[in-house]
Amino acid sequence: MQQGPPGPLVRPAAAAPPGSAAPRSGPVDSAPPGPAPLTQCWRDVVFLHWRVAPALVAPLLPPGTRPDELAGASYVGLVAFRVAWPRALGAVPTGGFNEVNVRLYTRDDRGRRGVVFRTMDADALASVVAARALTGVPYIWSDIALRTTESGSAGTVRRRIPGAPAAGRWRVAFGDRITAPSPMEQFVTARYGLHTRHLGRTLWMPAGHAPWRLFTAELRHYEGNLLAAAGVPIGERPPDSVLWSPGTTAALHFPRH
User: Fold this and answer.
1) All domains in the chain, ordered by first residue
2) What is the pTM of this model?
3) In this structure, are residues 31 and 14 in contact, taking their beta carbons and an 8 Å threshold?
4) Containing H/E element for 228?
5) Which tens digits make up the pLDDT trace of 74-126?
């Protein structure tokens, strides 16, 4: 499926109350004024999510954050997509790439809800080096192949770096459009920022984007050790949620406290 250049952005609004148990259906934090330093189109996005105990993932989070919970549980996600039309300062192309990340869901001491990336596999070495140096996010240089047809999506990833191998393979079939996302579907997709640990500080990086167009999906095949390599073993159990989206456009801002 071919997608065009970036569309309009939706900037986050006010932060959710620190004690709220379920996510809102819209943005949950405010982005800085002015143009974003980096914009990207996230295309052909596959979301696989497993329910996990908050106590299992709490030790994996940066200081000042804790697991975000929904109905007493948190989630670990494996999310794969194409980064298309990336632009620095709205004009300078930086080169597209494929990404597969393992993520956890967080809330910080100021009540901001976000994502913590345990690993971020990408097949563009320059982007890996730049992102790690500037923000501390755990990009890893890997071989990635993503394929999307009219009926489904498939992908493979294998790391290029030395050491213990980590790899994954999956295939999903598309289902129906989701017109009213459930609280769980909102919880794992309506995220407008990330927490990262960099140079001894826990930072918040706002990410404004248009709402996801979500579809149900059926997992036809999955194998790999990407979650275990990220410190979140889930055994052989299938994911609790499988979703697909044709994508959205994101505006990424500089990290801040």
Assistant:
1) 38-249 (2.40.400.10)
2) 0.86
3) no
4) helix 226-229
5) 999 999 999 987 677 666 666 789 999 999 999 999 999 999 999 999 998 88
